[in-house]
Amino acid sequence: MKSLNILCVQLGFHDAYPDASTLATTYNDGIYYVASFIQQEYPDARVEMCQMFWGEKPEDFPLAEYDYILISALATHFWSNIAALELIQRAKRPGCVVIMGGPHAAFAPYEALRYADYAVIAEGEIPSVQLIRALESGESVTEVDNLAYIDADGELKLNQIARYGNILNAINPKFLARAPKLHWATVSMSRGCPFACSFCYAIRLLGRRFRTKTAEDVRGELDALYEQTGCNRFYVTDLNFTTRKDYCREIAETFRDRDYKFIAMSRVSHADDMDLVLDLKRSGFEEYCLGVESEDPSVLQAFNKRVDPSEQTRRLLRFAENDIAIHSAIIFGLDVQDRPAIEATARWCAEARIMHPVFVCLAEYPFQDLLYGARQDVEDHRIIMEVPTYQHYSFVGIFPRHMRPSELQRGILDSYGIFFQRAFEIERRPQRRARLKSYARSVERGRAGMEQHIRFLEELEKPYYTASGTLKEPLLKADFDARHGALRDWLARSSKRSDLEFVKGYAR
Ligand code: B12
Ligand code: SF4
Question: Which parts of the chain span the membrane according to its record (predicted)?
């Protein structure tokens, strides 16, 4: 069998709309796991990585030489890199197969397939290898898991959805050989989350079954990444790292003798087991990214968060008292959130001593119910699509009913000012004040993008709001239908909504 030439591409952010949060990572791990798995299954293949996050460009690679080009993107990356996608189309050799995966391909396969032959709509390692095997042996692709494509009749096909068992996969450090100095090395230790928050797209990608790597495998993977990159700070991308306490204890034990630092994602109830929090802290877990979302009970209930709102503040304060830094996305844009509510939430973040709140606008993809039978709270016509800020939550991406999008964006921007003012009044510890200062600087880097977005929104929203700022919904809906009605009819012919087996598998 001939040896394969494969290029993997991570599309990057738009220059005008960077991800300015202190957490911005220098690579997303998904495509690295896919590339590593393919390399392992095809040891003779030449697998290369083009990382646009750190300035590499597809045109720097011999595009005409590849048999397969694999592309990973969030929505914002996709719409910020149309030129790069077109260039790949022009420069690749005829017969080269383009496969797109990651969140955008998963939730908007109809867009990904404009530039790709295949889109992967969930976990990607096994489907990529299944697909390459099928294509290399001239077999049909109908049995490949998690695959979307356009068939010979021009219809969108969605294959069966598969959720996998334990993950036996590690990032191959060679893909990070050209990495610049990393401030975080991104890795995953587990996949899946058993909760079912209404807005969560993460579980649609990686499933609700919590699966782990062995602690020993994780240590081997991290040691190899450290050796390659010199980076001893790890961003653990697990959806809900603390799902199983025994696993956390094992990880804590395994990394006791290493000088590594970690940030992991968890839920606010992690504060209830301070013994475990401190055990993990002794092994370097000093920061968490929590899905706090709000202090407002009606917002938490609307999201099916299943947390006790009256406990939020107390739990967050316990983290601060134990010198654990908390990052959290705080969601705005619901009908119950007017300007005073936004300001009150921003102030509360400081009072609950969250260190890095990221104020965001709830965003969703259209057609999720139609395509997959999945829940969608923001209706199709209220979603602002096809722009570089699409689903970059720092930038408003919906038409709220009760205020103009530009006002909401202004509310997001002003929230940072309100937060920092109160946080500096409250925070006395020098180390925590220094962190706040550094966070304030990184937020400042995002200001120009938000101001630019406000101007864009002011133009876009003009026809759709009354003088008092209420959405003229029938007009907006009529315009959406005129623009996207044909697409919706086409998607409806492939709809999985009534395929109960698919819907059940997708929700698992
Ligand atoms: C951890 C996380 C973060 C972390 C770290 C991100 C990172 N890895 O660098 C932080 C907090 C920094 C973050 C920030 C942001 N994030 Co984030 N994040 C996640 C989360 C929860 C997990 C991502 C992850 O790494 N998972 C583990 C890996 C193994 O999974 P994966 O990346 O999905 O990859 C698998 C498949 O998607 C697929 N796959 C991926 N690429 C490819 C390519 C090919 C060719 C194939 C075949 C398959 C394939 O195979 C992989 C392995 O099975 C996801 C939700 C999710 N994915 O479940 C959101 C998510 C990716 N983030 C999201 C967003 C919007 C952002 C921000 C833009 C937020 C903002 N500031 O506005 C930034 C962007 C930062 C960035 N560097 O991209 C959205 C994306 C929305 C969208 N549709 O585009 C998601 C989906 C959240 C959500 N809605 O649930 N994020
Ligand atoms: S706890 Fe987090 S990962 Fe789990 S369903 Fe809710 S938002 Fe998604």
Answer: none
